[in-house]
């Protein structure tokens, strides 16, 4: 392996970390999980979705990539859809924020 190859690997890892940081920043700000529930979303964090436990290993835009225990590949999951996060206080469910564009139910 040449010095240039090592530099390319370092640069690619740096870009990957920047992408993850930007994605996580968006998720944290948009869903305000830390303010609303005490949940700090981070790479390496433990989560539970539909009763299955796993670890956040990456981001995919505004989604999380979760490596579920026993699975070969990570799965793409929404930060609040059926998600629970392992916190110092125990497992905490992430609730979605209200959609400001959603119509109110019609009264009969």
Walkthrough of the structure:
This protein is of the alpha+beta class and 108 residues long. It has a single domain, classed as SH3 type barrels (Roll), CATH 2.30.30. Helices cover 31% and strands 29% of the residues. The protein contains two helices and six strands; from the N terminus they run H-H-E-E-E-E-E-E. It has helices at 3-31, 33-37, and strands spanning 46-49, 52-60, 63-68, 75-77, 83-87, 90-93. A six-stranded antiparallel beta sheet has the order 4-3-2-1-5-6. The protein is globular, with a radius of gyration of 17 Å. The mean pLDDT is 90.
In short:
The chain is of the alpha+beta class.
Radius of gyration (Å):
17 Å
Task: Give the uncertain stretches in residue-range form.
Answer: none
Structural class category = alpha+beta
User: How many extended strands?
Assistant: 6
Strand order of the largest sheet: 4-3-2-1-5-6
Profile the largest sheet: 6 strands, antiparallel
Counted by DSSP, the helix tally is 2
Helix content range of the residues, please?
25-40%
Question: In percent terms, what proportion of residues is strand?
Answer: 25-35%
CATH class: Mainly Beta
Principal-axis shape: globular
Distance linking N and C termini: 72 Å
Mean pLDDT figure: 90
Architecture, according to CATH? Answer: Roll
Spell out the helices and strands N to C: HHEEEEEE
